Structures are given as structure tokens and as C-alpha cells.
Amino acid sequence: MTMHKMSDIPMSDQMASLVRHLRQEVPGCLATGVVDMATGMLLSFETTDSHPSEVLDLLAGATLDLFQGRTVTMIEDIFKERRGISSSEHYFQEVLVNSSNLTHLFIRSNHDEDVVAVVVCPKSVNIGMLFASARRVVREHGGA
Question: The domain 10-140 belongs to what CATH superfamily?
Fold first, then answer.
């Protein structure tokens, strides 16, 4: 069996693998995707339901707004200034959004801050298990 470093595997395969593992490992996962914050594009996704392509395109844009919208970056800059942080690293790493019947977790990769994984579960999901599972999978996908 040949072992490959994540850097040896094409980016699209890495993202597809991350999405697949999130769907398998996160309890009750209904959909998951990976957004490239540098381009605002949805790189890969899996869902239990069919969604119009317009919705999937909007997901990428909404994720970009959540993490790097103008107001969000202003808040990050103020927090960094007040705390004396000069790093260009983004301050916000995870966002949890509850809709009327779904829970959406947006989690920035700890290896590439331009990669954000999105996980959608029923609102009844155990939030602790959602965070623990998603964090573990994202962390294990070191190149993702």
C-alpha cells in the first residue's frame, strides 16, 4: 500500500475526501461542502437532497460574507488592534447558524484559512458531537 502526503494529492481530491469523511463521521449530517475563501467558490459538496445550483452558488457567497464580509473584517481588525495582535490571521474560526429546522456549522481549516467546511444537520443534532466530529475530521485532513 502506497502512502501519500496530502500535498501529493490533487486539491480537488482532497476536498472530495474531506466532504465524504464529514458526511460519514458527523452524526445526522444532511449535507456538507467546502468553500474556497480566496475565490468564493464551492469546491466540493455532498447532500442527501437535491438543491438548485443557485442555492449551492449562494452558499459559497454566504460563507464568504460570514467569514470575510466587510463588517466582519472590520470587527476582526478592531479586536486585533485592541489585543495588540499584528497577525494577518483571521480571528473568527467557526460560525454556528440555526435555522428553523437545521443547524449549519461553518469551520475554517486550521491548515489553510482559505478553506471553510460547511456541515448541515437537523436542528435536533447534539451540538457537542457536531463540533467534536467536524473539528476532528477537518483536523485530520491536514492538507484541507
Answer: Dynein light chain 2a, cytoplasmic (3.30.450.30)
Q: What is the DSSP letter of 101?
A: S
Span 8-38, pLDDT tens digits:
567 778 899 999 999 999 999 999 999 999 9
- Percent helix / strand / coil, the chain, rounded to 5: 45, 25, 35
43 burial type by CB count under 10 A (0-12 exposed, 13-18 middle, 19+ buried): buried
Spell out the domain ranges in the chain: 10-140
The residues, ordered by sequence, that sit 6+ positions from 60 with a Cβ below 8 Å of its Cβ are 33, 35, 36, 40, 41, 42
Rounded to two decimals, the pTM is: 0.84
C-alpha 70/C-alpha 119 separation (Å) is 24
Question: How does pLDDT run across 75-96, given as a tens digit for each residue?
Answer: 888 988 898 888 777 778 999 9
| pLDDT at residue 144 in the model | 39
Judge contact between 7 and 143, C-beta under 8 A.
yes
